Amino acid sequence: MQNYEKAFARLEEIAGLLEQGSLPLEQSLKLFEEGTKLATQLQVTLQTAEQKLTTLNLESCDE
Fold it and tell me: Could you tell me the CA-to-CA distances from 9 to 14, 15, 23, 58 in Å, in that order?
C-alpha cells in the first residue's frame, strides 16, 4: 500500500493522462481501473484518519 501523498500524486497523474484523451482505449481502461482503486484507497485512508481524530477528540474531552 502506497502512502497517501504518493497515491494522491499518482491519481492526479492518471487524471491528467486521461483528460488528454490521446491514449489508446486499452491503456485508458487500465489507467481508469488503477485510478478507481487509488481513489478507493484514498477514501478509506481519509475515513480512517477521520475516525482516529474523532476518537482522539472524544478522549481529550473526557479528560
Answer: 9, 10, 19, 32
Residues 6 or more apart whose Cβ sits within 8 Å of residue 27? none
Measured over the CA atoms of residue 7, residue 46, residue 29 and residue 25, the dihedral's sign is negative
User: From CA 10, how far away is CA 12, in angstroms rounded?
Assistant: 5
Q: For residue 33, how many other CB atoms are within 10 A of its CB?
A: 11
pLDDT in tens, 12-48: 999 999 999 999 999 999 999 999 999 999 999 999 9
